[in-house]
Design a protein that fits this description.
alpha+beta; Butyryl-Coa Dehydrogenase, subunit A, domain 1; Butyryl-CoA Dehydrogenase, subunit A, domain 3; 3 domains; 8-stranded mixed beta sheet; 11 helices; about 50% helix; about 15% strand; disordered N terminus
Length: about 375
Amino acid sequence: MAISTEKVHVLRRRPLTDIADELGRRFAERAPAFDETDTFCEENYVDLREAGLIEAGVPSELGGGGATIDELAAMLRVLGRHCGSTALALSMHTHQVAIPAWRWRHQKAPLEALLKRIAAERILLLSSGGSDWIAGSGKAERVEGGYRITARKIFSSGSPLGSLLMTTAVLEEPGQEPMVLHFGIPMNSPQVRIDPVWKTMGMRATGSHDILIDGHVVPDGAVALKRKAGEWHPLFQTIATIAFPLIYSVYLGVAEGARDIAIDLARKRRKDTHLFELAGRMETELRAAQYAQRAMLDVVNENAPSARSVNEVMAGRTLVARHAIAAVELAMETAGGQSFFRDRGLERRFRDIQGARFHPLQAGPQAEYAGRMALGEPVDRTF
């Protein structure tokens, strides 16, 4: 639903966290039904669009909200306290906005048209990060004037409402190294369809279905980047540095929401030394996750993406995941048997927090990357 320009300007003067908390309380009421039916939280996106959060990360000079990375992270963290699925799906759009906004401002990259379109039309960008990490995925076949794409893109959060899929495919030609092509594909293309496979343990309302691309032709001029397959490129250093502090702010929010529920339930229990110890351990684990998230954002604010910034952010990603998961586990124990009932809200957050395990760099590759950096070895193929 469209709102007036005057209203948008009023909303921009409000802290994003205030808007997120106001919307989040509404989302929290809807969350159980979405979760129980594996239904995408489409209704919440009506509210997100009306509130101006879709274009929050677009520079104000280009018609957007002009939010900083810190402000976007805080917004997602607050939403995560109320509805992890909505927050995680929005993070996949938000980081796709924040990255071109950063590149436009700091690298003078020609991304003005995309950013203006996000602000004016409130289009929703989809990420296929689950299948498009460093190695790339899908097949690009050279045809006259462009490339024919055949691919299955997994974990595409927000896919039921997506406007533009920001994705890749691998071009293999005789006698040449495989190259990964980066481009956007409109979701209304006749050669694009959604395979509704998202039936999961947690984060059930993200709409992270598979997207099938069967013969869509990307024109030569629409290919934004060509890079070697299977090794880090400076663009991916920028992507990793900016995206993961935003994504993992969601998981921190989920853990903070679990903590709040656990404390409310624990206050009704008989107080003893064991309960105090459980609550204290929960608080300590949560504090560690909070410190790690803050460290990730500090790296972003250096505005210097590199192999080093990737190392620091990915260490933070591992620490946020580890301590947020531990905090939610302890929240279950602190609350006691009441936590086992679905209507208390902890059970859903316990399931949702498990998603923190699965984003890149997962535990093994992250440890290898950090170890190689420590020993002065190359990391260009560690992912």
